[in-house]
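Allow me, if you will, to draw on your knowledge of protein folds for a short while. I have a record of one protein: its chain in single-letter code and its fold written as discrete structure tokens. I remain grateful for any guidance, and I place the record below:
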Amino acid sequence: QVQLVESGGGLVQAGGSLRLSCVASGRSFSTYAMGWFRQAPGKEREFVAAIKWSGTSTYYSDSVKGRFTISRDNAKNTVYLQMTSLKPEDTAVYYCARYRAGAYYTPTTPALYDYWGQGTQVTVSS
């Protein structure tokens, strides 16, 4: 059984920064692509960023491109989301997820991720 545990959320002023972490249990972390999604109250879950198993390929939504950076440390079974220049509209619960093995790689599609963390709240005040 795989468990994903996010941390690093909190309250920050607009323009500030936070770094989210997601630690995965279980073996073979390094062979899976990982992603970050977020969900604001009353809105659907939306794609934020994704990273392939090697860390050499990354993907971002247009809304965070240039401000957020996804990275991973396979030795620590951890994926990170560095968030800078935060805006009030970034306020949401942030989730990390593991991409389903064998699926054609479409990182923006939530249904193609098979394990999800419990989420960590990020609140950006204006």
DSSP finds no helices and eleven strands in the chain. The chain has a mean pLDDT of 95.
